Amino acid sequence: MIRALATAAVALVCAVGVATPARAQDEVAINGTFTVFSDGRFAETNDSRHDEYSVTQTWTVTSTCTTYQDCAGRVVSDQGWSGDLVYMSGRWKVTRTVPDWEPCIDGTAHPGKQSFMFWAVYPPEPGRYVGWDKTEGPSGACGFNKVLDVEMPLTVTRIN
């Protein structure tokens, strides 16, 4: 009898712990339209706080998951760009290139790599995420061997 109970308990634990694609799709994947706000009032450049312009945009997000850790998708912004969306370690990330992001004194400009990293708020609020909007210029741009980076707090909120 003890052996039968132990076998049943192991079977129950295994059944509960199995991540099915349908459950992962329902619980992790994000799809819909979102308002995305990058708060320039709390921006940091090279670890020093200063003001930047705040940016509000609307994203259309589509994603699918095969497991709780294997999700991917696409973001389309109303600002004319799109990027691949990946899920890793409980966080969503989308990256894009911003042309002519870092202007130089000589009139040239270098692109920036903008990354949006966000995760569900705690305690959970369905359709609400927080994170960071970080843009980095290339090392050596404008003749300086120092990367320029700007990081701002980010909120992502479902609107439908």
UniProtKB/TrEMBL annotation:
This is Secreted protein. Keywords: Signal. It comes from the Bacteria. The lineage of its organism: Bacteria, Bacillati, Actinomycetota, Actinomycetes, Mycobacteriales. Residues 1-24 form the signal peptide.
